[in-house]
Design brief:
alpha/beta, Rossmann fold, 5-stranded parallel β-sheet, 5 strands, 19% strand, globular, cytoplasm
Length: 160
């Protein structure tokens, strides 16, 4: 397919589910911008800079991935980097309604940018950053849910 795509999220923290979507998107598009959006309605565990560093570490072996942060409208960021697509991951049917609203609004704001949904692998369909943080908080096993760098960062956060 080619072109530039943006893969947005809060990534607090990045999980194997996110990595799966990014890797698969990177096979389809020439360049993927993984963008940490600073969502004012969320209370993140990791700072934006910490999340950027974790994502860079986890995606360093995917040559066509760029990692950045952005405040504002996603379609504005996409336009600035000349992206023609937004990649969104879907875990379950319950994600679809929210994603459809966001996609519809993005289309109103800029109808030249298409949204592509990628269904997560079944092994990650239950996985969310919130669940990972909850398990990590109580010292549960998360090695199958997040890359080693992220596991270490979570352990450090909850030891403090």
């Amino acid at each position: 397919m080619g072109g530039i795509a943006v893969c947005p999220g809060s990534f607090d923290p990045i999980t194997y589910g996110h990595v799966d979507i990014i890797r698969r998107g990177a096979k389809v598009f020439d360049q993927i911008h993984v963008v940490v959006l600073n969502n004012s309605s969320k209370n993140p565990l990791f700072t934006v800079d910490e999340r950027l560093e974790l994502i860079k570490d986890v995606t360093k072996e995917i040559p066509n991935v760029t990692v950045a942060s952005f405040q504002g409208l996603l379609v504005d960021y996409a336009s600035n980097v000349k992206a023609s697509a937004i990649i969104r991951g879907l875990r379950a049917v319950s994600d679809f309604e929210y994603e459809m609203q966001i996609t519809s609004m993005n289309r109103v704001l800029n109808d030249t940018i298409e949204t592509f949904f990628i269904m997560t692998n079944n092994q990650y369909s239950f996985l969310s950053s919130s669940i990972v943080k909850e398990v990590a908080k109580y010292n549960g096993k998360i090695s199958e849910l997040v890359p080693p760098t992220v596991e270490k960062a979570l352990k450090n956060k909850f030891q403090d």
